[in-house]
Every structure is written in C-alpha cells, then in structure tokens.
Amino acid sequence: MLRRPRLIALAVAAVMGSGAFAVWAGMPPSSDGPAPTGLAVASPTAAASQSTAPAASPSPPLPTGAPFVPSSIDRSGIVPRLQAALNAGRAELAAPGIVASVLFPDGRQWTGVAGVADLASGRALTPATPFAVASISKTFLAAEILLLVEEGHLALDDSVAALLPSTLVGGAAIDSRITIRMLLDHTSGLRDYLISPALDRAVRAEPTAIWTSEAVLAYAGRPVAPPGEGYNYANTNYVLLGLIAEDLTGRTLAAEFRDRFFEPLGFGSASYQGLEAPVSQLPTSYRYSSGRLDAVPRDVTDGTDIRPFTAITTAAGAAGSVAASARDLARWARALYGGYVLRPDLLAAMLADAEVTQKLDPPYPYGLGVQVFTIDGRVSYGHSGRLVGARSAMRWFP
Question: What are the CA-CA distances from residue 299 to residues 61, 132, 196, 283, 329 (Å)?
Fold first, then answer.
C-alpha cells in the first residue's frame, strides 16, 4: 500500500533548454531529505532601509515567459501528456491538490492544475496560487548571501562566530571554525533544530505562537560533527545565515528578498510569510490520521493567513518561510541558475561546491544552497521543500 501523503501541495518547477518546472503535492511531514540555458520545472511590509545598510542591487531584467502556444511546441502532444502526468501524480499521492509549471527553452510556459485548494469548500487552485515553498526558501537566502559577497560585505570563509558573537546555538557559543561556506553547504556540523521532538511538541501546543531565531536555535542541541568533517542537512545553518544577512543590511529578509528578487523579477505571487501578507490565499494544510491512502485529513491551519500554521512557519524562519506559485518558482530557477542573478564566478562556485560535499557522502550532492540531482540521465539544479501541509520541488535542467 502506498503511504498516504500528509501535506496538501507539491510545487514542482522545471526548466529545459532555457526553461523551468515546479509542482505541489501532499507528502509526509519532515524536514527536507533527500549553464545559461535550461528547462526549469517548479510545482509550488518590508522594513525601511537604514542609511548605513548596503543597498539592495536589483537584478537585471528577466525575460517574461510568453503565453504558451500549443501549435509552436506541441508537436508530440506535450500539453495533454503533461496534464495526464500531473493528474496521475495527484492520484498516486492522494494529494488534495497539485500545481506544476514548466518553462520551455523558448520562454513559453505551461502551468497545470489538479485537485483543489480546500477539501471542505472545494476552493479552486489556479496557476497563480501561492504555496508554502518551505526549504526552496534557502535558494533565495543563498543568493542573498552570495550577493553580499559580491558587494564586498562578506567572504565565504569568514568566521560565523565573529559575525554573530553573542548568538548561542543549543545554548553554546558558535564554534569559531564554522564559516559562511559551511553554513551554505551544510558542513558546519551543527544539528538541525527543526527535527527536535521538543520543538515539535512546542509548536503543536501553541499553533499561533510566533517564534524568533533565538528561540529556535535553543533547540539545536549539541553538534553532530566537527566543522568541515561531515555533511548534515540542518535548518540551523540557514537561520544563522538569515541573522547575518539582516545584521549586515539592517533590513529584514522580507525587505531584502522583495527588493532584490520578488519585485525586479516580477514574482507577483511571492511573499515572506510572517512578515508580509500573502498576495492571495494559500491552500489549506492537512495532516492525515495514518499513512493509508484512505486516511482522514485534518485541517491544521490556525485561522491566520500563514501556512501551514504560524508556529511552524515562523519557527522555520529564514530556512523556509517564502510562499510562491509554481509559475514563479519556475521563473526563479531560470533566473538563478541561468545567470540573471549572480555574477558568473559566484554562480560557478555555488554549483561546484557540490563536488566538495560529495566527498562527505551526502544523500545527494549539495552545493551552496543548491541540490544537484541526475534525473532521467540529465543533471539538474534546484531544491525541494517540505512542511506539514505542503511539499515543493524546483529543478533547472541546463
């Protein structure tokens, strides 16, 4: 028997030739496990700047995807095949709803919808529906950090302890050997606070509570390895990166992401949950009573507009608070990995770092905020995300 997915939506974004794909679908609750052309696939109130803060540099204009014209691309029935695959995926996952978007090499984009945004009301999903993208948020933060490197405010081998001298992780000072690079590629040796059973109990007990970075870092516990000697995926790393970015800029990540990425790149669905109101209502989040396909869904939303619910999303913080549509995720994949956001040498460093972590036997190669997967014999760059109520995946095929 297939296990029953426990999240409402899977956003998948992909890009081919010079395109992208994104999809949203239900999955079990847990932390994330496992060139300038390409196919991208994706399926899922800013603070004022202080005068002393480094200015956010708007990215160069990204070509807007033209409306999909079947006659120009659909020589082998691509549109019905994509929709059929989406429908089959939703049935196999028993997911309430899935949205997928594929951005093709010529700039045209297809977005498909299957299922609904809310089981009780039957509220419709649309191509523009934003979802909680969870750890795909890390790709925005990784780009933010690398732009701060480009602007001379930071270096990849800077000591994190020197930048955050008063910050405690698991009640202890940060090891002085941990660098920015180690946070980005999860080789810091720090433990993941988000898998703490104690934290899980705390967020469930008060679903509307707002968590701070300092509060969640207390749940990290002891390190799992010395810095640089092992790979351990930990949301802790990105919470620390978020603190560093906010300290250096004097602005919230919400303000930075909006000024650097969301507005210049035209991502009309994107927001930073907990600090910004969503552009439109997100899908309802569900937890299931068992792993069976006929298990009963339980709505876990908390009466606010934050998904899945306030406590878990604010606890994820810098590591996983962005909401966006599959359509915009596909365009983000093309922008980031297609060279519209980062200087060529920094993009190359982001991707090449996967070869470094591969020597540490990770479950999959991981660079500076990027997962590197081979899918159907083709290399892809991107990230996945998972929270209670939503799962996402974003892939760029160079």
Answer: 40, 15, 23, 11, 26
Angle of helix 137-150 versus helix 344-358 axis, rounded to 10: 120
Range of the domain at 266: 9-397
- CA–CA separation, 1 and 86 (whole Å): 21
Joined tokens for residue 361:
């036997």
User: What pLDDT, on a 0 to 100 scale, did the predictor assign at position 94?
Assistant: 86
User: Is the residue at 4 inside a domain?
Assistant: no
CATH of the domain at 356: 3.40.710.10
Q: What is the pLDDT of residues 80-118, one digit of tens each?
A: 999 999 999 999 888 999 999 999 887 889 999 999 999
Q: Is residue 2 part of a domain?
A: no
SS3 category, 221:
coil
- Which of 82, 13, 7 lies closest to 43 in space, CA to CA? 13
Separation between Cα atoms, residue 380 and residue 371, nearest integer Å: 8
Look at the chain and report how many structural domains it folds into.
1
Encoded tokens for 289: 């009573």
Task: Please report whether residue 81 resides in a domain.
Answer: yes
Residue 7 scores a pLDDT above 60: no
DSSP assignment of 72-132:
HH-TT-HHHHHHHHHHHHHHHHT-SEEEEEEE-TTS-EEEEEEEBS-TTT-PBP-TT--EE
Joined together, the tokens standing for residue 369 give 């905020």
Q: What is the largest CA-CA distance in the chain?
A: 61
CB of 103 within 8 A of CB of 21? yes
The verdict on residue 1 lying in a domain is no
Mean pLDDT of 8-16: 39
pTM summary value: 0.86
DSSP per-residue string spanning 32-66? -------EEEE---PPPPPTTSPPP-PPPPPPPPP
